[in-house]
Amino acid sequence: MTQRPYAVFALSAENVPLVFPPPVLARLRETVDIDAALVAEDFTDPRVKDALARAEILVTGWGGPLLDPAALDAVPRLRAVLHAAGSVKGIVTPEVWRRGIAVSSAAAANALPVAEYTLAMILLSGKDLFAVRDRLRADRDAFNGWGLLPGIGNLGRRVGVIGASRIGRRVIELLRPFDLVPALTDPYADEETAAALGVPLLPLDELLRTSDVVTLHAPATPETRHLIGARELALMPDGAVLINTARGSLLDHDALVAELRTGRLSAILDVTDPEPLPAGSPLYDLPNAVLTPHRAGSQGNETARLGLVVAEEAARLAAGSPLAHAVDPAALAREA
Question: Taking 60 as the threshold, does the pLDDT of residue 1 lie above it?
């Protein structure tokens, strides 16, 4: 029997049983030798020194240490980093690429619940559900919204998707069964890409002017900081909804607060800048702002999907096959 490659968990210990519940851990152990009780949260910890010296694979995730030159020196046999989460930007340094270490990410799996959250918010906001809930709660004795309400609904509603990322593309796919009209803007997408997704490719300003819902799925880069500011918000039509599940830095929050105070727009924010918001932020109290605490990504039983991606990637490594979710360092700068 071929000897299984030795692997070490390098993430927050509390997350190991969540991302690798027993069936997923068993799947991982079919192809690698790994101990769930041995977790390298700190590479300078003497208790993990020998394990790291033997490791060919690191299974990383939320709370994992930065893989800088000093950390990598502790793992001299390392040939692959399998990341059981989305972006690897928080752990991977240029030294990883310089040493020829392969990197894989479960970002595609983490995109699924974010896209599902976005779809739910698009549909619920189309029914004005959040405002109706608040009015019903406040005026339960006098609420007169039980009949037909004009001006709401999801028939022909225009949805502008900013960013043809994994999540942005998945959102477009999920919108197809509904009577909604999506459009895309992305400086890196071309007409062929948009056509394959079945949507028109628009300049940002045109998308903002013509969308009833705008949903952000672009990466956080110096170029996208405050991509949506006062000028862009002013382009959005009255009654439009802005959804952000990407990164808080894409949105100028001061400009958003000013626009929301007019009552002209609504916003649904799963990410903010800073995160969390300070307790005194007006966004907590504005009736047309819906805040959720970074819940769009994998939560609860969804995290096992991330571990399963890693188990499948480990099997490919052991078989000498290419990784299915390899991270391209050249493209990393424009990814989330």
Answer: no
